[in-house]
């Protein structure tokens, strides 16, 4: 029976076709998938570099490009193009095998030779004096990483990552991955570990060349081409892939992503980290799907959860796209953490408590400070209560005296601690008497009740955006599933922590050591936007939620694009007018309104932008509102978390707004908290900027935010 593979690059081409042509493509290729292609005529291409590459008639105008094994036992769908272009494309391409992984590589020999000659000329120019990009890597190491002779020749001529990027499309994917890792500062050993881990799984050693030559080497190589070739089993599977041609993430997981998503049962909690846009959410979705394939699981036995309601809705929509089988889909429930906490809030405490927000709490703290004659600001008390008392479930003065205050920068004398404890008790008593609770208290009450339940509501838990959960929410989540294989799967990035909710998984009894992995390739944002946004975090030291430090080594983008723009205005009306003009410009070039996202630090500025846009006849919709509503999406930077847009404006990034003064603890009150608050605000700007796929514009009026200094200084 023939093996059919679909190359990753095929789908974006297919997505661009008109519906009638797509239908014809479906028809022709379905014959391959259903193995009824015996009569289908594959044309040889005169002067082809690779005799296995053929074209196939789709319509009078369109041709498919296919690599076929001589025996007719395997086919690889590569492209679909107008007739002449298809012939030229096919003539210049060669299908080879990666030296390390044995996976398929499709290369344009002619373009690569031209590029090599160009770089050779540049290299011999007298002005070429900067060091070579891969000077520090030996030929032996390059060979070990699967870099073949042709690619090594050209990469030895390169002097910058820009030059490597310029070559990007001409270098086969796995080799590019290796070179990009080296260029991003990873050692050859670290790159090798990553590649070997991804491509040489111990349980499935690569077939030897001699062995594969006897059989169908194309079919064997396709099976080793994880991440860019999907081996299709039947016409139904092909139709399913072709139904969502824009959603490459459904089918083409990077080997690192797939390894984690489809890992054999983890013997306890597992965790995935990685910079913005590296596909943590994608992996969490695939992991949930993987777990849900277990036919023994009843409905709703997997909980996929995250911090906010709108993110949970987004996850749910994406699961619907990912999972075709309604029975499998029904095994996964998607709900945000606080809804879960309320659901499991014990009945004896009343039906449900009213949630008290920060503003109301601060009013109460202020009153108590006056009554108790304390010389501390209300924000300090609130933080001390949330980050020490609630975080560690402190219930007595003795416990408070002994509590771990790491992360708090102001030392408290024992007498002051006793005084504070009396205030905390009074505060809590007042809330109880009036039926108020914070979300953290609701979560802890739910945790108590869940711990006492012999039958847990879920079998598996998958958590996205984990960096923002308060310890109380973790306690509840820990209690919602029994300990055991695949109990918790956690995705998060501490560089994106935007709420003051730090937690150490270890101290909460969640041990992920040995079951942690990191993603490094950003699929969302162009290299330009990524470098610019990452510069905002320069010098920041961030924890890894497991009592270590996080870093962004090897973090890189998979494609190039336009550099971000900054726009400075004299006053607010001018900035809003500038934003309206920019949006109008984008819409005029065919960008759809729903793929434009605008955020600002305050809700009010967003409302004013919305008014400006509406007055100009441009529809707007609030972030977090009805997903189906038409219009440019507008919301606060906080609401942007986890989302993405084709074009993004981050507005009102002025010195007086970012960082938001009311969110920053005074340095004299608590220097450590002061730094943490600044970090949260910086992360928030980073989160808002990294939502952009193609275009990013950051604007302000008056003086720019101090956070923009690293990017404005470098122009
Ligand atoms: N293997 C892949 N192939 C193609 N696209 C991918 C792949 N993995 C992720 N993506 C795309 O990259 C984008 C970012 O993915 P995702 O939202 O999962 O990243 P993330 O790490 O959770 O991001 P953030 O932390 O910034 O919210 C999405 O558009 C997703 O579809």
UniProtKB/TrEMBL annotation:
Q: Which reaction does it catalyse?
A: ATP + H2O = ADP + phosphate + H(+); Couples ATP hydrolysis with the unwinding of duplex DNA by translocating in the 3'-5' direction
GO annotation (BP), single: recombinational repair
Q: What Enzyme Commission number(s) does the record list for this chain?
A: 5.6.2.4
Q: Which residues form the UvrD-like helicase ATP-binding domain?
A: 253-558
Task: Write out the residues that bind ATP.
Answer: 274-281
Q: Where is the signal peptide?
A: none
- What is the top-level taxon of the source organism? Bacteria
Kindly list any coiled-coil regions of this protein: none
Q: Which of UniProt's keywords are assigned here?
A: ATP-binding, Helicase, Hydrolase, Isomerase, Nucleotide-binding
Task: Name the protein family.
Answer: Belongs to the helicase family. UvrD subfamily.
Q: Could you tell me which PANTHER family the record lists for this protein?
A: DNA 3'-5' HELICASE (PTHR11070:SF45), UVRD / RECB / PCRA DNA HELICASE FAMILY MEMBER (PTHR11070)
What this protein is called in its record is DNA 3'-5' helicase
Q: Which organism is it from?
A: Haloactinomyces albus
């Amino acid at each position: 029976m023939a093996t059919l593979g679909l190359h990753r690059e095929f789908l974006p081409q297919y997505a661009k076709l008109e519906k009638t042509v797509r239908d014809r493509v479906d028809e022709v290729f379905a014959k391959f998938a259903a193995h009824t292609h015996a009569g289908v005529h594959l044309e040889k291409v005169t002067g082809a570099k690779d005799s296995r590459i053929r074209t196939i008639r789709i319509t009078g105008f369109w041709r498919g490009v296919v690599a076929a094994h001589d025996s007719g036992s395997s086919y690889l769908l590569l492209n679909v193009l107008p007739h002449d272009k298809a012939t030229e494309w096919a003539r210049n391409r060669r299908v080879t095998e990666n030296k390390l992984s044995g996976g398929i590589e499709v290369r344009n020999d002619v373009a690569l030779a031209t590029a090599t000659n160009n770089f050779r000329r540049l290299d011999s120019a007298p002005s070429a004096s900067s060091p070579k990009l891969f000077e520090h890597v030996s030929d032996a190491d390059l060979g070990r990483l699967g870099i073949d002779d042709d690619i090594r020749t050209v990469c030895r001529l390169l002097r910058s990552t820009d030059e490597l990027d310029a070559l990007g499309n001409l270098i086969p994917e796995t080799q590019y991955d290796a070179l990009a890792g080296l260029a991003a500062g990873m050692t050859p050993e670290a790159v090798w570990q990553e590649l070997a881990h991804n491509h040489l799984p111990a349980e499935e050693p690569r077939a030897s060349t001699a062995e594969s030559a006897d059989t169908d080497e194309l079919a064997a190589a396709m099976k080793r081409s994880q991440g860019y070739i999907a081996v299709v089993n039947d016409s139904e599977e092909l139709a399913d892939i072709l139904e969502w041609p824009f959603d490459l993430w459904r089918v083409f997981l990077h080997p690192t992503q797939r390894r984690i998503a489809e890992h054999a049962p983890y013997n306890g909690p597992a965790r995935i980290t990685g910079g913005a846009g590296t596909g943590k959410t994608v992996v969490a979705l695939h992991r949930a799907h993987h777990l849900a394939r277990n036919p023994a699981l009843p409905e709703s036995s997997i909980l996929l959860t995250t911090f906010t309601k709108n993110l949970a809705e987004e996850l749910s929509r994406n699961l619907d796209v990912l999972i075709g089988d309604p029975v499998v889909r029904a095994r996964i429930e998607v709900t945000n953490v606080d809804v879960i906490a309320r659901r499991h809030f014990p009945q004896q405490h009343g039906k449900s408590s009213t949630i008290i927000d920060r503003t109301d709490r601060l009013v109460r703290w202020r009153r108590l400070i006056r009554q108790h004659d304390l010389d501390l600001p209300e924000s300090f008390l609130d933080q001390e209560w949330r980050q020490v008392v609630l975080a560690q479930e402190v219930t007595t003065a003795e416990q408070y005296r002994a509590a771990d205050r790491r992360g708090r920068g102001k030392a408290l004398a024992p007498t002051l601690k006793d005084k504070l404890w009396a205030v905390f008790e009074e505060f809590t008593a007042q809330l109880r008497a009036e039926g108020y609770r914070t979300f953290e208290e609701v979560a802890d009450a739910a945790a108590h009740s869940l711990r006492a339940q012999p039958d847990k509501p879920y079998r598996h838990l998958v958590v996205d955006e984990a960096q923002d959960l308060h310890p109380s929410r973790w306690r509840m989540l820990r209690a919602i599933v029994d300990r055991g294989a695949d109990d918790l799967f956690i995705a998060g990035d501490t560089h994106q922590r935007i709420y003051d909710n730090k937690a150490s998984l270890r101290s909460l009894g969640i041990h992920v050591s040995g079951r942690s992995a990191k993603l490094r390739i950003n699929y969302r944002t162009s290299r330009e936007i990524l470098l610019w946004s990452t510069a905002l975090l320069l010098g920041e030291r961030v924890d890894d939620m497991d009592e270590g430090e996080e870093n962004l080594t090897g973090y890189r983008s998979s494609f190039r694009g336009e550099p971000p723009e900054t726009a400075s205005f004299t006053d607010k009306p001018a900035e809003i007018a500038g934003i309206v003009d920019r949006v109008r410009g984008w819409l005029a070039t065919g960008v759809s309104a729903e793929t434009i996202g605008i955020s600002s630090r305050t809700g009010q500025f967003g409302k004013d932008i919305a008014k400006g846009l509406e007055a100009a006849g441009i529809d707007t919709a609030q972030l977090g509102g009805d997903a189906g509503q038409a219009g440019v999406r507008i919301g606060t930077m906080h609401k942007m978390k986890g989302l993405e847009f084709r074009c993004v404006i981050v507005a009102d990034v002025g010195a007086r707004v970012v960082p938001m003064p009311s969110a920053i603890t005074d340095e004299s009150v608590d220097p450590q908290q002061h730094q943490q608050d600044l970090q949260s605000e910086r992360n928030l700007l980073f989160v808002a900027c990294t939502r952009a796929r193609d275009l990013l514009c950051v604007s302000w009026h008056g003086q720019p935010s101090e956070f923009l200094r690293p990017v404005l200084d470098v122009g």
